[in-house]
Amino acid sequence: MRKFLIAGNWKMNLGREESLKLARSLVHTLPPDTHAQVAVIPTLAHLDTVTDAISGSPIALGAQNVSSEKKGAFTGEVSAAMLKEFGVKFVLVGHSERRHILGESDSFLNKKVHAVINEGLAVILCVGELLEEREKNKTNDVVGRQLELGLAGVTAAAVEKGLLVVAYEPVWAIGTGRTATKDQAQEVHAFIRQRLAAQFGAASAAGVRIQYGGSAKKSNAQELLAQPDIDGLLVGGASLLADEFVGIVQAAAAAKPGC
Length: 259
Ligand code: PGA
Prior knowledge:
This protein has helices at 16-29, 47-54, 80-85, 96-100, 106-118, 131-135, 139-150, 156-160, 182-200, 202-206, 218-225, 242-255, and strands spanning 4-9, 36-41, 60-63, 88-93, 122-127, 164-168, 209-213, 232-235. By secondary structure, it is an alpha/beta fold. It contains 12 helices and 8 strands. It is globular and about 45 Å long. α1 links the parallel β1 (4-9) and β2 (36-41). It has an 8-stranded parallel beta barrel, surrounded by 6 helices. The site of 2-phosphoglycolic acid has 13 residues, from β8.
């Protein structure tokens, strides 16, 4: 049985004091048996503050970005080994804001995927189509290509160690208030699992958690999480409000009892 992963991507929204306040509030308000693995993903600049605030709690730490390189003259970059020193467990790679605003290509993202996995950290590879791609029925082509190129060279052994999470984030649903319907999301999640099965074998693919992201919130979390191939949520805007985020985590308990 796959354990839900509910992760809050704080993006570049919170300063140090705000990050500290939100982290402390989650530590105090999240129920001890959360039914889901919970992670917070602050900006790189505040990893140290947040790692201290959540220390001793079940909340895991994630990072929003990583260098594709191991070490050396790469001004402004932070390596996977450095993230590990902060206690990071999950690293986002391929978020649509990095693909579309910063122009990160699939081959560049593939190097980041390997950098993360080689350090023994779990990668959350984000995939998703633009609105015009969906309207032209290209969703599976786009997502299939992002998976194929992004995961090139990744081994079933790494997947079996739990080092791969996939997040399906339709770009048209991110920060727009427009959520994919549960059926739209499930359809793409099932397709993703099929592609993972083709690359890693059915048994390994069955263990991979596939998160949905894109205007996820307390009011839609339960119906999304009740879908057979939706194993968690990657939450942006709603993760900045403790009450909303805790509500999402609580929704996980009701979505698939026994999960
Ligand atoms: P959103 O962002 O929840 O604000 O739509 C999701 C994400 O970008 O991961």
